[in-house]
Amino acid sequence: AMEDGLMQGSRIREGDCAVLKRDDVFKAVPVLRRRKIIFEKQWFYLDNAIGHSYGTTFEVTSGGNLQPKQEVEETTTETKEAGTDNRNIVDDGKSQKLTHDDIKALKDKGIKGQEIVQQLIENSTTFRDKTEFAQDKYIKKKKKKYEAVITIVKPSTRILSTMYYAREPGKINHLRYDTLAQMLTLGNIRAGNKMIVMETCAGLLLGAVMERMGGYGSIIQMYPGGGPIRAATSCFGFPKHFFDHLHEFPLSKVDSLLSGTFSTETLPSEPEDNTLVEEESNGLTDEKQTFLQETEEEPTTEAAMEISQTEEQETMDINAERVECKENKEKESKENVREKQRKQWERRKKLMEAAALLGEKNADGLIVASKFHPTPLLLALLEFVAPSRPFVVYCQYKEPLLDCYTKLRERGGVINLKLSETWLRNYQVLPDRSHPKLTMSGGGGYLLSGITVVLDKGKSDSSNSEALRMEEPSSKRCKVQDLHC
Amino acid sequence: MSFVEYGDTIKDGDTAIVFLGHESMFPVKVQHGTVTQTKYGVIRHSTDLIGKKYGSKVTCSKGGWIFILHPTPELWTMNLPHRTQILYSTDISIITMMLELKPGSIVCESGTGSGSLSHALIRTVAPTGHLYTVEFHQQRAEKAREEFKEHGVEHLVTVTNQDVCKNGFGVSNVADAVFLDIPSPWEAIGHAKSALKAEGGRICSFSPCIEQVQRTCLAMEEYGFTEINTLEILLRVYNFSHTCAGCTCSLDPSVTVGKHQHTPLPDSSSRCAPCPSSWCGDCLGHYATLKANRDDSGTLGYVMVRRWFFLGSVPEIRVLVHAHSLESTSVLH
């Protein structure tokens, strides 16, 4: 268990990506000293959290510092005065005797939230008439408002998928966390697989797959445009070696790879520094990014790099001797060119490696969750998957998956096709007060899953009665029902 | 083959899945010299299976064919011999994610039952993790041990035959996660706590009845577990239906075609008057069929009627609510 880095990272360290939690609200932040964080209307620094265990709950003190919350004994032993029902309770908005200003004064004095709640209870004329349950509810509500407690939790698929679905569902195509959970299982994602992943979910699905593979096996991530977005992936905090066998390959080259005309000569324009672009959009800031903005996110930093190069050269001209300048300039631009060439060579090499891996056509599975229509993706990428392997496609909408189903049936080489969605319901479980809270259905997207089999090159499926048994008849063969149709 | 590693070709001793079509399948133990009967004929292991690639089509003696598949925990769940009510992949998926299981995790489970969840857990924690599973029924415990061995995963699992409520899981202070699927989970919470590592361990209990959930949540709280969450997950499957609907556009009654002929209308770009979309011209577009029609003079003729073919998705009528469906997870600090 040690080797997998499980023991590592149970303490909060500088440089980690941590997730702040308050009730059901999450936010991912980098753990950096003297970096002001805003979360749930609170401003604070994370400095004091460094060194504590993940899962620790903190209070925000007046200076914006974190302090581990002391365990307080609930005063349950006193017999509380309570009413039996609300028939005589009139809600005139005047039952609380403390004013806004009074409460503000208490806060400014640095009085702890707990104490404020106590004050509110004492100054409420109706509190003792409430039923015990209503009192409980009242206290919980006030605590939520005035007790600024924050828990710092370690990122995981569970945490990050919940966070993204709540905060930025558009970034992940509304892939709800229970749907993601199904994908990981249906796809038999595990250590040692050779997986093909195609996603436009900010790298969340990739991270989830990597977590379940534990650094073993290999992943080839297919990407549209110039490069894969791995913003969410960096939140997981994987050890470096997890990335040793993570490859990427551009979708634009898939056709050529399948037809045998692949070459590394024309590379898609790749950003020099993908991480900069990502930091803006990974939920580490409060910036909201819409779905449409996502589609326009073409990396353009190559142009930026050229600009900064000329800027550098100009600066050097000003500060040095003309001759030395010239020499330096030549040397620098030579170095820049060499560096650029080296990087390009690196990229070509990686691309060829990825192409070779794909070309073996023996991947252990395919997992897709993107904003693109699933049909062309599946038809192309299934070619790289070995027979008797599962595949799973997510789509926010059902209809494209219906089309996908039809085209897959025509292609053949797949069985056990299943279209599904999951509904999720959470419960409040309290003595005598248990009931469902929220039901989520339909809004979590849909899955099409299946298993590959050896693809029959000859189209033998058409009129075979067994074929009809194996596959749904396509509408081409659908007989006219006769005049009653 | 093993349940934790893919193999390419079928070997003697493997467990494989015979797929007959449309959700019909069964597991088979591959053995030299044996035969397996199917409704499409006989499969001879020595000639038809051993040495063949997984995913191959195998023709049976009567001429029909099947596909032979590599086992996975999910396929096993759908096909294993039930000794008890089992957990299905829908619940297994959410449990796995909520318990944050991954390679290297140490998990405790009780009861083992038919081993459905066990196989999935073993798959997830392999190659460096371990499953400690406790089953109070002696024969079931023994059968589980046998199966794990047959499936090549015995090094990843320890089966203990005892009552978890009395004697716990047999380990202490090591587990990352504990899972309970027993009648009285509240009696095992204390033992779960001692099996779990000191901080950050997660526990999940699975119960069919709300009363059990209530008692368990209370026990979790008493033992210092925090962030208790209860949820229910339901799977809705859609079936596919190639169907058609009549199109209410009017057609030229003077165009007649032979009886029983159905052809795509000649002009794929034509738009018929009240119909909102031009038909697409392939099999999911409009087709014309014939409708017998007597005109005013009583003469029988045929009129073309457009039909709009489409693929419909039909939810299964009953949303399957499993026998056990409520799970509570919480974390220890």
From TrEMBL, chain A:
First and last residue of the signal peptide: none
Matches recorded under InterPro entries: SAM-dependent_MTases_sf, TRM6
Subcellular localization(s) per the UniProt record: Nucleus
GO CC terms, sorted: nucleus; tRNA (m1A) methyltransferase complex
Biased composition (Basic and acidic residues): 77-93
Region (Disordered): 62-93, 265-316
GO molecular function: methyltransferase activity
Superkingdom of origin organism: Eukaryota
The keyword Nucleus is assigned to this record: yes
One Gene Ontology biological process: tRNA methylation
Coiled coil: none
Keywords: Methyltransferase, Nucleus, Transferase, tRNA processing
Keyword Heme: no
Comp. bias intervals (Acidic residues): 270-281
Family that this chain belongs to: Belongs to the TRM6/GCD10 family.
Name of the protein: tRNA (adenine(58)-N(1))-methyltransferase non-catalytic subunit TRM6
Organism: Colius striatus
